[in-house]
């Protein structure tokens, strides 16, 4: 059987990793400014992470959600503490799209409505509801398109207010920082006013922090720069450092009912031990502060470069916009300079390194980038 060919692949076979570096099958070392698409939070093969998952799998990899799993409670209390959301509840699933599906479903159970407001250039995943609220018609199949989503311009509060005051909108879903959309940051004042209008109109505010959360922005969640508290926050990517896992943080306004949400694999023992290891390391190694410090440094240094049209972002979620297509630049970075980077659209290079990136590694990246500019 061959693989269903949906991914345009780089001709590189990565077989190992350590910290912010990965190695291919020919022994070539690469600097990882991509983090396997913002997934690697604490660094590749962190010894504590390896130890915890190894010990857990040798005891028990999985049992079902029909029995007590104290590891889930451990994840919830540690996550509540580090994020400042101790009073919220946690529901665990397996992927980013699944987190957004459950967030939207919970919102609809709560207020009985079904219209959703999302934003131009948003990305929320590829499954049914998640893709419907994603602003990319190319990946929305006819079976996903129920016409219940309105896409509005980011940062235009008056347009949002007009829609929400129709009082038929179930939820607004918004990324903490738009990733696929090209590292676009919602204004803090926009988020504050959005919070207010959602409350006034009984609309559920969902913050998709799947890419921008878990310390990436230099705060635990990107929306914390605006000082708001959403009704539901979705997390994935960095939560398991590569172990497939996601979650939704749910405000106390929602009342759980047996059976309203559920999953076979979500919150399994192995996933929870990965998540606990991640939170241990984030706390122990002050990785949120490191993301803020090294991210600020990178932003400032990159802004000095005249060859780059715009440099934007927060923490270690950075976009470099060019006047031209970056296809060749990204290839040269990978094949000549041995640096992994991400992309948004055709002109934006996306940096999403592990949160343990050091100042020396940041300097190393800048000098390798200069070689190809
Ligand atoms: C903001 C955002 N939401 C949702 C998703 C979907 O996550 P997953 O691919 O794990 O389903 C992504 C993935 O890139 C994302 O960046």
Which key features would you list for this structure?
alpha/beta; Aspartate Aminotransferase, domain 1; seven-stranded mixed beta sheet
Description of the molecule:
The chain is an alpha/beta fold and 373 residues long. It has 2 domains: 121 residues, Aspartate Aminotransferase, domain 1; 237 residues, 3-Layer(aba) Sandwich (Aspartate Aminotransferase, domain 2). Helix content is 35%, strand content 18%. The chain is built from 11 helices and 15 strands. The strands form 3 sheets. The chain has a 7-stranded mixed β-sheet, with helices on both faces. The termini are far apart. The model has no long low-confidence stretch (mean pLDDT 98). Pyridoxal-5'-phosphate (PLP) binds next to helix 4.
**Average pLDDT taken over every residue:** 98
Catalogue the unreliable spans. none
- Text of the CATH class of the largest domain: Alpha Beta
- What is the gyration radius calculated from CA atoms? 20 Å
Our estimate of the beta-strand percent is: 15-25%
Count of distinct strands: 15
